[in-house]
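If your schedule permits, I should be very grateful for your opinion on a structural question. I have a record of one protein: its chain in single-letter code and its fold written as discrete structure tokens. Kindly check, if you would, that the fold set down in the tokens agrees with what the sequence suggests. I remain grateful for any guidance, and I place the record below:

***
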Amino acid sequence: MSYGVVWFKKDLRLFDHEPLARAAAVGPILALHVVEPSLWRQPDMATQHYLYVQECLRDLFDALRGRGLVLQVVLGEAVEVLEALHRRAPFKQLWSHEETGTIATWQRDKAVLAWCRHRQVTWTELPTGGVVRRLLDRDRWHGIWEERMTRTPLPLPDLVPGGPGLRMERLPSPWTLGLRGDDPPDRQRGGRNLAMKTLRDFLEERSRGYRGGISSPLTAPTACSRLSPYLAHGCLGLREVVQTVRALRKDLPAGATRRRRGLEAFESRLHWQSHFIQKLESEPEIEVANMHRGYDGLRETAHDEARFEALISGKTGWPMVDACVAMLRQTGWLNFRMRAMLVSVAAYPLWLHWRPVGLWLARQFLDYEPGIHWSQMQMQSGTTGINTPRIYNPIKQASDHDPDGAFVRHWLPALRKLPDTWLAQPWLLPYDLQERHEFHVGRDWPAPLVEIVSATREAKARLFARRGDPEVRAAKQAVLNRHGSRLSPQGKARAAARRRPPARLANAAEASGPSLPEQLGLGLEP
């Protein structure tokens, strides 16, 4: 019996899953997820990512089983697994979403394409989210994104099992795969069920605090949506989230101002997400090379391993920085402003190259999304050539976002007994007060690696000297043409008008059930 293979990669859901729907319309299918050792051994992968994906797969397995299909979770390299399936029972169709990933995934996909051509298998790759493959003109990207976000989500298809499948063995441990890092004890857990619960909780309650609450590490854990790991692994589809937000915003009462503004700001972030992933799609090399090659050599040879080790071990001496590192170890998450501060401190006063810092942070972030991550690493490090450098002073960030020291004291027990006056700069504590508080810089707390004002000033001078080079300035336009945002203020207004919620949300259950907001159980009170 003829059948097609649906290859689940970073799209671990059934709702609005175009490859699954298209394949099911053709005939019987075999659902496949491949655990690829070569990808898990990459330096940006960590134990927490592997365990999180396993949790997502359990939900997907249960969802498919409920519709009469067994998810084949097979250990091996993609080409080897596909070849084994084909030998056992030949198939002519392979279906999957496109994946904007690292160079390793690009190479894997090229190998799969070569295998498909050799075996005369048609591989249908379909877009996911708002990223456009083979985009010739960035000017058209915003329109394509909006058109995709307004399409009717696909209904859950009837599924007919096909193919004999392969024997599924117990998956290896993270350590067998050579994965690094511990599993943060307080990280988010994976799966579609928790994704939907988190979405409902954010839209119903926490979105009220989104604007104004996402900058401080004190309020951000609840003010932020916390949907990023679910979007990164496809437990939620971007379109379903966008349409749910728009439908909910349309039905809010006039007095629900805070909630409406929070949802507007959140939708803007969803658009921003695709904008940055598109950069990696258009130029995969930015994972390993400066976006603007005029910045080559700026930091590569100056990378100081001792400073890097102090940063990743949370011993820089700057409390706000070290508290953020401690939070990352415990939770696998940090709000955007604090992430930017970590990269800024690494790039400027510590003068570290973005690549090793980026690999470390990729392993720390549960929601690691290569497209966003590597673009942001370069943007915060000043190597894009098209963005104004944003340089964060960790002392000022502590004053602005942790004025009472609650965040620092929570994550750094060694500093809990210090008075507020000295908490952000414990190295300035006079010796007599060090004696009184039984706290000594150099013994109980490391002195800062560098004097931050002078080190930052020197770093800025180096960066702006390079930016001012005539050849570097001349090459800026090519980078801007390829990666720059095209929205003018007028264009932003037009985009906002296009994003007005439709009169009625079309969704996967519209023919036989409630709307998606109703499925989520969303209340519409202010």
